[in-house]
Write a structure and sequence with these properties.
The structure holds 2 protein chains of 2 kinds. By secondary structure, chain A is of the alpha/beta class. Chain A is built from 16 helices and 16 strands. In chain A, 29% of the residues lie in helices and 18% in strands. In chain A, strands 1-2-3-4-5-6-7-8-9-10-11-12-13-14-15-16 form a 16-stranded parallel beta sheet, with no helix packed on it. The chains are: A alpha/beta, B mainly alpha. Chains A and B meet through helix 1, helix 2, helix 3, strand 1 and helix 4 of A and helix 11, helix 12, helix 13 and helix 14 of B. Chain B: Pathway: Protein modification; protein ubiquitination.
């Protein structure tokens, strides 16, 4: 190998992605050791690093070009040695000048002091905190004040982050492009107003409220009223995902929905209060929409609305069909409430949408209005490649047998479907029409019945969901 | 044995030629000496590399085909025919192919390798070799047409493989599936030493597609392999002390094993 030029060996090594392969190669000889050290930009550490500070120092000294570090203590137990604490972040700040992507998961010994050490990492552009219970809003504020290049921030189950001055600061800085806040109990919909002018730069927002704590939070009318007077310039938003949120009519997040102009992907999951008007406005302004995912809450999920249900109707689907000519991915789901929801989307509404738009992926979950007539209509969809049916109990064998006539279908997933048996799959057996078929928890379909129904078949049957 | 038979044939022909044209005997003798030297060299080469014999014969055929495309003296051509009379049919097939290719692509480039073999390749193949193309761009049209470009660091065997790769790659690139299949077949035909020699030649001539393809193949060969395997594969000796290796193994254990970079929690 001595006569192979350095840059060719570099090229060969750069094609090794797995850590175990890199580890093997670095032990071959010193030449490869130094090449690997220079090339390694990512490292993931956690349990098994003992003593933690020494090990981290050693790794940072060896891999001098580290730009991405992930520290995860998932599954940690005290017998595995002490966890990395604030001193570890000081080591990172001192030894990794190129650090731009940091992820901390289940780091229960890292506090605001650690984040303060990171404030000197001027190249940090992405931070992800997953269950770091000792970190508060003050720690995040000190970090965002120091790391002025931060463009991506993900907070997941940061239970003690309550103040949102950091959000206000990021909003004024105007560099944040990707914001994700999931299951942080103390952060509510109204807090997002703090972003202010920061909405302008934001391209991706994921906001998920912990469903178990939603009703305990006092509804902050003051902040909601403030929404109404504020300008929310979110024209650059491309991807929006809201889970378990309360969308007050004409206020708060409803303003966001209506202001988006370039949205490509939207996911509304158990969002109480979304109205047809919101979806109609959204479809009119965001005609580039490619992916729509709607999970409609049950009528019983919020008792106060029982007398005046705010439900989405076919008007929303018709508006999407009329305005969004690039829509490729559609997912419609109804919640698994105590009682099945009276479907707000009818069969004709769904068909209007999928027949007008070039839909390639269609997923229906608990949609009782979709039946064999709907399956017959799918025979004429020239773009449909992937179909997923979950708990669609009105579809029978007769409807499923039509799958062999779908022009371009190559992926089919069936889950918890009561009305389909092996007979429904018979036309597919041996035809090799499908590339992939997945059958999950369908009581009337046997493993033998799915043999040779597709080039690749996945079968699972766990019927505990029925009892 | 085949070669011996060929040699006998040549001797018989020499005798009859001697009877017919005594005046040319000295010229014939000189040619004989050269041919014998070449035959001996090739013979010894063949003996020492038996496993690659098929590849060698393929390479020789390629060389001869390329040589015949060039206007060589009639006498030399006849000598070549005599030596390889057994493969006459193959020769004519390749000659026909060369003629056809010649008709398609009028512009040709002469390349002379380290071991003295001259190749006539189409201009588009020369363009793939950026080093060759740069040389052509630096010289005037007249001189480049007349003189064979010297390649001091590239042997004939490697150049033949590179030319073959370029041709097959163009043919196979009609579909991605065919292309991948071709690359795998091409790499599977090479042993480790041939792969390394070829990648060095491709590097010298800056043939980017071939470089990428070979890098991919080598990287694939060492995936999921042990340290010892990679040492053997690259032919390197372990220059670690026992203490150093133990220390580095411990450090490696801290960076998670068998975890892909893309995998997330």
């Amino acid at each position: 190998m001595d006569n192979i030029p350095e840059h060719i060996v570099w090229e060969i090594l750069s094609r090794l992605k797995k850590t175990s392969d890199r580890n093997s190669v670095s032990l071959v000889c010193k030449r490869l050791y130094y090449l690997d050290n220079a090339q390694r930009t990512f490292v993931r550490v956690g349990c098994g690093m003992d003593p933690a500070d020494e090990a981290l120092t050693c790794l940072c000294t060896r891999f001098q070009n580290l730009s991405k570090v992930e520290i995860t203590y998932s599954g940690w137990m005290s017998k595995l040695g002490k966890q990395l604490d604030d001193k570890g972040l000081l080591i990172l700040a001192n030894h990794c000048p190129l650090l731009c992507d940091l992820s901390l998961s289940y780091c229960t010994f890292i506090t605001d002091v650690g984040l303060r050490y990171l404030a000197s990492s001027s190249k940090l552009s992405s931070l992800r905190l997953n269950f770091t219970p000792r970190i508060t809003g003050c720690g995040i504020l000190s970090l965002v004040v120091g790391c002025k290049n931060l463009s991506s921030l993900h907070l997941i189950r940061c239970l003690n982050v309550s103040s949102v001055e950091w959000l206000e600061y990021l909003g004024k800085l105007g560099r944040l492009e990707d914001l994700s806040i999931k299951n942080c109990r103390a952060i509510g919909e109204g807090d997002l107003i703090k972003l202010g002018p920061g909405w302008q730069k934001l391209t991706r927002l994921q906001f998920e409220v912990d469903a178990n704590y939603r009703y305990m939070k006092v509804y902050d009318r003051l902040s909601v009223d403030r929404w109404q007077k504020q300008h929310v310039p979110c024209e650059n938003m491309l991807e929006l995902s809201l889970v378990n949120c309360i969308i007050s009519p004409g206020r708060g997040l409803a303003c966001v929905l209506r202001k988006c102009k370039n949205l490509q992907k939207i996911h509304l999951d158990m969002c109480v209060g979304v109205r047809d008007f919101d979806i109609i406005c959204l479809s009119q302004r965001s005609s580039n929409l490619k992916s729509v995912s709607l999970r409609v809450p049950s009528d019983f999920s919020l008792p106060s609305l029982v007398n005046n249900p705010l439900r989405l109707t076919d008007e929303s689907l018709k508006a999407l069909a009329q305005n969004c000519s690039k829509l490729e991915s559609v997912r419609i789901s109804f919640s698994d409430g105590e009682f099945p929801s009276s479907s707000s989307f009818t069969l004709s509404g769904i068909l209007c949408l999928i027949q007008r738009c070039p839909v390639r992926q269609l997923a229906l979950d608990h949609v009782y209005s979709f039946n064999d007539v709907g399956m017959e209509a799918l025979c004429s969809l020239e773009y449909l490649e992937s179909l997923e049916l979950v708990r669609c109990q009105e579809i029978s064998d007769e409807g499923l047998q039509l799958v062999s006539q779908f022009p371009r279908l190559c992926i089919l997933r069936l889950s918890k479907c009561l009305g389909i048996s092996d007979d429904g799959l018979k036309p597919l057996v041996g035809s090799l029409k499908l590339d992939f078929l997945a059958i999950e928890d369908c009581p009337q379909i046997s493993e033998r019945g799915v043999q040779r129904a597709a080039k690749s078949v996945s079968f699972r049957q766990d019927l505990s969901w029925m009892y | 044995m085949a070669k011996e038979s060929g040699s006998s044939k040549i001797e018989m022909l020499e005798i009859s030629n001697e009877a017919m044209a005594e005046a040319q005997s000295s010229k014939i003798e000189m040619l004989e000496i050269n041919n014998e030297a070449m035959a001996e060299a090739q013979s010894s080469k063949t003996v020492t590399m038996k496993p690659a014999e098929a590849e060698e014969s393929k390479t020789e055929t390629q060389k001869i085909t390329d040589e015949e495309s060039k206007n060589v003296p009639i006498a030399a051509t006849e000598e070549e025919s005599k030596k390889l009379s057994i493969t006459k049919v193959e020769e004519s097939k390749n000659a026909a192919t060369a003629t056809t290719e010649g008709e398609k692509e009028e512009a040709k480039v002469s390349l002379k390798t380290l071991d003295g073999v001259t190749f006539e390749v189409e201009a588009w193949i020369a363009k793939e070799m950026e080093t060759v193309q740069a040389y052509i761009d630096d010289t005037s049209a007249d001189t480049s047409a007349a003189i064979a470009i010297p390649l001091h660091n590239v042997a004939g065997r490697e150049l033949a493989r590179m030319v073959e790769y370029c041709k097959e790659h163009r043919r196979a690139s009609v579909s991605a599936g065919n292309l991948k299949e071709f690359e795998e077949r091409f790499a599977a035909a090479l042993n480790l030493y041939e792969m390394k020699d070829l990648i060095i030649a491709a590097n010298y001539l800056n043939t980017k597609k071939l470089l990428e393809s070979l890098s991919r193949c080598i990287a694939k060969a060492i995936k999921n392999k042990s340290v010892e395997f990679v040492r053997d594969y690259f032919g390197v000796t372990n220059d670690y002390t026992t203490e150093e290796e133990a220390q580095y193994r411990e450090t490696n254990a801290w960076a998670f094993r068998n975890v892909d970079e893309d995998s997330r929690n």
